[in-house]
Specification:
Radius of gyration: 17 Å
Largest sheet: 6 strands, antiparallel
Order of helices and strands: EEHEEEEEEHHEEEE
Strand content: 35-45%
Number of strands: 12
Length: 213
Amino acid sequence: MICELQNVYEARVSGAESERSVARVALARLDSGQAGYRVQQQAARELLAWLAQSTLGGVADSFGVHTGATGQPELRGDETPLAGLSVSLSHSAEWIAAGLAREGRLGIDVERENPRRRIAAMADWMGWPGCREPDTFYRAWTYREARIKCNGGELPPNDAAPLPPAASAAPGLHHAFCIRPAPGVHGCFLVETAQRLRLAWSEVEMKRPATWS
């Protein structure tokens, strides 16, 4: 399969003397003719293995992605679970995302708009009266999915706000960032960590292949 890496995002925490990376998330796109579910799933796992190699060092082939006891993805090195890491995967049509956090918990989601979805009806069913337009609905939906993955598969509380708080309103442990990588494509990355992030998220330059197979 052939993927094209679109962006790599990084969350960093400031210290008195240095900054360090807390989490990295990679976003890639499959060739349009390779958008089947199994292909998406495998490509997302390969993307996570590449991201682990780029972030942690080593050979990508030594990293494997498995399903843990809770049903969430688990990153292993030479078949040994890597302690202290939180990983997350997502895919929708030709878009795939993979991320890892070395401190705290991580959840990611990417969604391509589907014109056949009845957005207004779905928003009403979810109890989101203010999210009946595509932009706000997908912002709420990707944020919800990211929260579920961040919490190990648990649903958010019924009274949880559907939209992520503004960065200035949530300077503590809950860091959410929503992106629009292309028209009709929405994503959300959520990090919960004991550290305070200097910036919510920023694009970083990494040594990377434009495509891989």
